[in-house]
User: Fold these one by one.
Assistant:
Number 1:
Amino acid sequence: MHVRDLIQFLGELSENNNRAWFVMNKPRYDILRAEFLDVVIRLIADLSKFDPDVAGCNPKKALFRINRDMRFSREKIPYKTTFSAAITASGLKKPSQGGGPAYYFHIDADGKLLIAGGEYMPPPERLRAIRQQVIADPAGFSKMLKNRKLRETFGDLQQEGKLIRPPKGFEADGPHAEYVKLKSFIVWNEVGLKKNSPADLNKQLAATFKDAYPLVTWLRQVT
């Protein structure tokens, strides 16, 4: 896809985040959206080579809408300034829908590509099940955390929103007690795209997601 055109569009949108501007520039958006969908179509095929479970993911449903949900937001801007997608085995991309672990990426107005794997802010019942699996299978959890490719590419699990104390029902000195405090079980990294060749985008995404596969696989074992 034309990455530079996408970044320019998102940059202009961030400065003119209103319906009038968007309607005037809708033809540009439609072209970029179609190109982004093509990236996701090819990416699903690439991921299926090492993760066959995502082969049936509907690429159109994997894309997030650009319209923001403003019902509960103080910031009343109507459009997101990212193009984003989440590829899952279930085909459901939102944690609230029970989508399970996802391969997520977005491109923002600053030309940054965020690549993530795992589950971000899963609903309470799902989060509790993940935490219980950490305690029930400490050896398996440790093995996943120590995976060489996972650690080289992402480091540790993200600590954003971590609790100060373990949640109710979990011991403070239990196995992996610090990880039980997490509200998300996800890894991610962020890179600049301005110097990258657009032709390399799919290759970069697939290679990075492959390194997140051990976490995705471990999360799929949680029931």
Number 2:
Amino acid sequence: MTAHPLILAARRTAVAPRGGAFRALQADELAAPVIEALLLDSGVERASVDHVIFGNALYGGGNPARLAALRAGLPDCVPALTLDTQCCSGLDAILMASHLVRSGAARCVIAGGMESYSRAPIRMHRPATSKEEPVAYDRPSFAPFPERDPDLTVAAADLAAE
């Protein structure tokens, strides 16, 4: 029997510009109160959460979903996963949560996206030798071919025109 996923509650943080009201907060610090509000809104107990899945494209590594889950007071035994599919990360997290519920592998999953542009790491390509300097970059490549790796605003404009 296939379970039908339901959204019991939905929340998000306010949006602030880079360097604005949330400039001192990491992504997990922004996400933790959202998790707490979701639990309150839905009436779900912390111990009833089977999994936490968040998409994040800017973090420098590690597992910010795990940090957010622990900050929100979820039990240590609740697994958390961070996905990085860039702009699709938050939606992919929700899709994965849906699949877990449909398959019967989970009954309650907290899923969504999390970012803190103000606290995103500075990205540098490591030099190949000690005589070279690191080279900064704004975003990772989405494709190995420059003609298939447009800037986000260019890609959005092209898609809108199409």
Number 3:
Amino acid sequence: MLHANAALTPRQRLRMAQLIVEDNWPKVRAAELFGVAWTTADRWAERYRTLGAAGMVDRSSRPRTSPTKTAPETTKRIVSLRLRKRWGAVRIAAETGVAASTTGAVLRRCGLSRLSRIERREHQVVRYEHAAPGDLLHADVKKRGNPPPAAAGGFLGREQGKANRTADGGRARSRHGQPLMRHGFIHVVLDDHTRLAYAEIHNDELGATATAVLRRAVNWFADRGVTARRVLTDNGGCYRSRDWAAACAQLNITPKRTRPYRPQTNGKVERFNRTMTSEWAFAQLFTSEADRRAAFPAWLHGYNHHRPHTGIGGHPPISRLTNLPGQYS
């Protein structure tokens, strides 16, 4: 690459050298014409006599010899210790007798300066998708803190904070005598194949509540031609309850639970929860929980019918159900 401040381009060098060599111009005169020193003109003229037009390009600035370059045997040993024992530059330097700075330079040159580039994952990520709608439903409860109620143009921050510090199970009351609910519980049932989601917001995560949501979700999916066969949940108390087991048996659904402390197994609904949090719960400032809950049905409809889903090729979940009346409304 030609230097930005270079006085001569290869084409100008060739023209100047030809004037001196072929047209017998004095070096001083040619140098004045091109605005360079006569020694520069002499150097390009000599290179033209020796190499011709090919000699007008810049040569590599790389030194012909590097006496202080790390020996190949040492480089090989440094790389071997890094790969086999995962040692850092200081530890390798102590073992090989090479300066730590030199060891670090070798590792950077070989692309081994970060362990993350050479570490192997102990567990490969296994991605799956059931072939048909209803083969597997994912169920989960997302606990969400309620925003403080608004009054007189502001937030009741002090009153809400007092409720949050109360140890009576959230039974503190506002100045109007109404209970201050500190949390809402979003019960979600999501189809593995289509990513269609059914969700309701409640004030608890009891087994009876989760069971009622499941029954309504199964009917909602059935109205769209989806027959539920299995449901996967975590090990939450509501999903280990007798109500849940009885409802699954009555609905002819096989209940499945994830391995403890492995939320990745239920990853599709966990990803839905994250999307829901960012695109609905925190998408704007809600001055009350009532306002936030009122905005939820419209967001959920947009998620199912209009929002492109990257997990299914950028199409909305409803597109995976065919011949469904009003599916794009």
